[in-house]
């Protein structure tokens, strides 16, 4: 091997020498060309090879070689005949998991897979309770979820999203400014102390993030704050903004959501209860009624006092909430309006889950606005959507995707570690063994499946919806856009890599900023 390297080095030296010599006669004096010749020759002498090897050695990733060697050993264990069947199964599991990990999805999908496991657990309980066990949920597994994610993302492209919003009315700039302000305020609700809340509100004023900045500023007055959440009693703060000009003050009751996506998934399994002319989510109905009863008298008195004090202009009273807090805010607003105790109250929800029946959701469209950021999973979480997602994953054939990745994997291993995988038919042996294993371990159950009963199922239609008018901020491929949409836009879970990140308040702020600055 070293002789070949030296030979090639010498051939390269002669080639460089001849090229330099032939070109020197036309380019410049012979003396200068000879200097160039000497320097070039000295830099390419064979005895410099050890130095070059040391440099190459520094660039070799021995950990990667070790990883590929270990993976190749698993391939050998999987395709060899005889031996312990359990060892073969373990080797196959190792190959499948490493194949998925090699796609670069490990870290970024940890939170996603955790949420999906929560969805799967919820689906199993709902399947037993409402679906009579019709969904073959035993086939909902990590490899299937990974490849189903790849499948859905290949469909839900920015072009596809733009087409779905083609005939939806575009939101005006003022509406997007409200999203940015209220998303900031709901993010502040996740702070722990009154001092932190006050400082963050003042910073919003300094950065001119308010829709109505009071002619250049104003003062925030925190009336009350309770940041210790309890069952049925969400954390919240109540504040009034006093503008510097003659515009009317604005009162904000801001309700915190939950810190945990699995908690939201658990809450979606609760029953609906009667609520005025329709029904509501039982958990958020109790939270919303509690908020309304606690603040009804205060809001009414504050509204009446300020109405006569500031040029007879009515005070604006708004309830704002993120996630489950948004659902509670919507319930409280409907209750305050229907009871007639606070007539001027409005509501703005950020990433709220579906909380009321369709008739109530439409009835409150004049005073409740619900905002959704792209693929945010929470506004799409209902019993129906969870079960439908589980059904779609369970019948999805992902073996074609796995075979594609395994072919690429074996080709790479045969190149990287040929001393372990020298046989030309290694790939076909591996594919045959793994396919047989996959079909046995993960194949859909034989006989009647959920897909056969889809039209007759009791969970094919949503019973709860997002309240009020719906504003959707979605990715266009060049940034974000905002349009007013119909409720059917969120009838299914948008299974994507960003469906969790899109739920955070920061995602709403960022999307609004991109729209306003775009």
TrEMBL record:
InterPro entries (UniProt xref): AB_hydrolase_fold (IPR029058), Fungal_lipase-type (IPR002921)
Gene3D superfamilies reported in the protein's UniProt record: alpha/beta hydrolase
An individual GO BP term: lipid metabolic process
Domain of life from the UniProt record: Eukaryota
Span of domain Fungal lipase-type: 253-382
Cited Pfam families: Lipase_3
Protein name stated in the entry: Fungal lipase-type domain-containing protein
Species for this entry: Aplanochytrium stocchinoi
